Amino acid sequence: MTTDATAPAGSPGAPEAGWTSDELMTVNAARALSGARTCFVGIGLPSTAANLARHTANPGLVLIYESGTLGSKPTRLPLSIGDGELADTADAVVSVPEIFNYWLQAGRIDVGFLGAAQVDRFANINTTVVDRGPGRPEGRLPGAGGAPEIAANCGRVLMVLRHSTRNFVRRLDFTTTVGHGTGPGDRERLGLRGAGPTAVITDLGILRPDPETAELVLTDLHPGVTVGQVRAATGWDLRVAADPVTTAPPAEAELATLRALKAAGRSAA
Amino acid sequence: MAEIRTLHDAVAELIHDGDTVAMEGFTHLIPFAAAHEVIRQGITDLTVVRMTPDVVYDRLIGAGLVRKLVFSWGGNPGVGSLHRFRDAVENGWPRTLELDEHSHAGMANRYVAGASGLPFAVLRGYRGSDLATRTDTVSTVTCPFTGEELAAVRALNPDVTVIHAQQADRDGNVQLWGLTGVQKEAALAAKRVLVTVEEIVDVLEPRPRGIVLPGWVVTAVAHVPGGAHPSYAAGYSVRDNDAYAAWDAVSRDRDAFRAWLKDHVYDGSEPR
Hints:
- The complex is a heterodimer.
- Chain A is an alpha/beta fold.
- Chain A has helices at 21-31, 45-55, 84-88, 96-105, 147-153, 186-190, 227-232, 252-268, and strands at 38-41, 62-65, 69-72, 92-93, 111-114, 118-119, 125-126, 129-130, 139-140, 156-160, 197-201, 205-209, 216-221, 239-246.
- By secondary structure, chain B is an alpha/beta fold.
- The mean pLDDT of chain B is 96.
- At the A-B interface, α3, α4, β9 and α5 of A face β6, α4, α5 and α7 of B.
């Protein structure tokens, strides 16, 4: 689950095998944090990207973890959101009720950064249960964690997850966390104050909600990836921007920093 | 004033069959040794409450002692699934497990209400989520001042809250520091409070970011060095990430799990 999917040479996303498809995804997710002041960080891929951003695109980025840390500056990737280094390097450590009530709910945080098990065309998220067919019990996922309120109350939401028809589904088996609901106006109707998901970064490209319909549209392709590959990995009839752009290849510095962060995390674990 | 007891005696006196028990600690300071003592004593039909069930409740669930789980995120942090939890939910092994499932913000506020002596808490949450369709402890309330509709969550008041802390003094005053999670609220919400500690000291020296629970809100203290392992106690130990990773293979297989419990819990490899 946490291992990297190393793309073989010639496969999509790794034209010269100079990087893995996961590295492409993480580098682009880190770039998406340019200009953000504060980020509420989910564990896993979002934490990797947010820590990379703090070492590359956005050195001043304030990392906030739901374990109660404000302004964590870890030098290695934490395995859990409660690793001691997150507290030891933080500007402030507060209780869990305080982080959710005073900091998140009050609307003080710019970006919420989430992973997901299932996403639909309106960037709603399922992390609770999956339907495994007639006569079989529901498959159990970890559950909501902080996501429903992170997505409701942050200024905007970024999502990062691998692209497959298993993850990008026509219909969610369960709505854990609301992105754009059933379309335009739904967030306002539900009283969700932030802008909701503004980008979904995957190992194939980037999807963004159409300003008119709130439906996710493929706007960016990673180097070497084709529109057909992305559509084939999406469980609905994915719309494509008129002229999708190609993301810049990972820079040497981005890759070196990412690999060093991951190596430091492994040696500490 | 809290009494200083052995772990065996404190668990036997405070935790009973059928109780609602909260063992809190957000990744840090998880009271593993106390949970293992519950397993050794076979205290059963429990309703267990934790924001993150973690490996500690995976063990209680797999041991067949849990009737109902109240929680908000049930994974092995940084590793993957909790397999004993999944086996109980998906297959009813070793017994069916009732769930009361929330978001983190909802659970935190349920403890705040419980600690505050209120019947419910108010938050901006759950709107549009299917979570509210599967529990009777989430509802809505209309603000009497603005007319805004907000989420209401029912207070949590456990029979017993169990936490692990760095230090207590001989009067049972307790101090914990580092990530202190929701432990203060969970303790003040409960009828009885058991605290296991790394160290018993003559005088509690105030620590940066520390919180103190006065001995008169604590029922019993037990001296259990290393009692959070494989979680950790800042200033005393570091998180044993290898043990969390190793739990994945142990917990995938029912027989491997049972063998692990026998070797590491029932045969009493921990201080009593």
